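Chapter summary example.
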Amino acid sequence: MSKSNAAEFKEIRQRGYLLVAVKDNSPPLGFRDRQGKLRGLEIELAQKLAADLLGNPAAVKFIPVANRDRLNAVIEDKVDLAIAQVTATDSRSRLVSFSPPYYIDGAAIIAKKATAESLNDVAKKTVAVLKGSSTIPTVKYLLPQVQLLGVDSYQQAHALLESGIAAAFTADASVLSGWVREYPQYEILPTLLSAEPLAVVMPKGLQYDSLRQQVNAAIARYTTAGWLRQRAVFWGLPVVK
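The structure predicted for these 241 residues follows.
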């Protein structure tokens, strides 16, 4: 097996580092800071796994991937793990294995501070949403009187909010957390509309049992110890109470 490809855990230890697919444009989960350094909750998680599994938080090589390549990078043995804003679903579980969730994401709503304090405050107003978003049926079900306005980009949504055409914007809470960091005059309303578990993507196959066991046990420890919750709060991510 090539040294640049995914490997069984014993081979990873011999190699000396983890290969991890991540996002580099999704703050605060995985993004590049002004110096070009990868930062975010998922980056820290990969480093902590490297520390626990290999004894060195720097023993990880990051492979930035686009959304469409997150699963394939694991399936095609290009990486050992993907920690890249992937929601664990039944259909995806047929292709890859998932760790316990490291963060519960979900649809949320953002509005300018002092304009809305709860979902009821936007229940009959115009709310922007990305066209084709999986958030749309959830919002329609929970807020049947809301007026959804489709947009092509986050920039367009921001313009509609600034102009007052839209009272709020709905998207994944993890995405909106990055929005709040960039535009602090906005805030995420406290109630999530859905619960979507983000999990580490791992390869299927008996030869990867040891790797999966190591990662699963580590995620369980981080959850029990409160480390994952602490780091989520640090990065401004909404945390389900």
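To summarize the output: The CA atoms of residues 98 and 201 lie 5 Å apart.
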